[in-house]
Amino acid sequence: MNCYCGSLKSYNNCCEIAHKNLAEVETAEQLMRSRYSAFVLADGDYLMQSHHSSTRPIKEKKEIVKWSKSVRWLKLEVLETFKGTQNDTEGTVTFNAYFYENGKVEIIHEKSAFVKQNNHWTYLGLSK
Ligand SMILES: [Zn+2]
Questions:
Q1: Ligand 1: distance of its center to the CA of 93 in Å?
Q2: Burial status of residue 63 (CB atoms within 10 A of its CB: 0-12, 13-18, 19 or more)
Q3: Is the CB of residue 40 less than 8 Å from the CB of residue 65?
Q4: What confidence tens digit (pLDDT) does each residue in 36-76 have?
Q5: Contacts of 10 (CB under 8 A, 6+ apart)
Q6: Does domain 11-126 have CATH number 3.10.450.50?
Q7: pLDDT digits over 83-118, tens only?
């Protein structure tokens, strides 16, 4: 089976590497993909861990997990990346995340900002 993030790799050769050890994530796009997969798996701990500490929604963790379990995740499309390579400390990823909720397909379209914190990539929030 291909990874939840829609890459052509298997989960254990893709997002599972990130889910086991965040420090293994090399690019902002990989982090973004691993966070999508974490939504599919309702892995609240990983979603918190991979979130920048300054914007981490700790109190909402339960609701995020509950919500991510309540919808059916359909697919991820990565549209554009800017910086975010191994040699960068910041970058953006623009994506569409599709899910099925209350009888219809919903799309999250977002340009996300990622920065390195403690030598690993983290999700900062919406890019300006
Ligand atoms: Zn993946």
A1: 15
A2: exposed
A3: no
A4: 999 999 999 999 999 999 999 989 999 999 999 999 999 99
A5: 1, 2, 3
A6: yes
A7: 999 999 999 999 999 999 999 999 999 999 999 999
CA 56 – CA 49 distance, rounded (Å): 8
| Mean pLDDT, all residues of the chain | 97
Residue keyed to tokens 């609240």: 44
**CA 7 – ligand 1 centroid, Å:** 6
Cα 2 to ligand 1 centre (Å)? 8
Task: Categorize the per-residue pLDDT at 123 as very low, low, confident or very high, splitting at 50, 70 and 90.
Answer: very high
What would you measure as the largest C-alpha separation in the chain, in angstroms? 43
Asked if 83 contacts 91 with a C-beta cutoff of 8 angstroms, the reply is yes
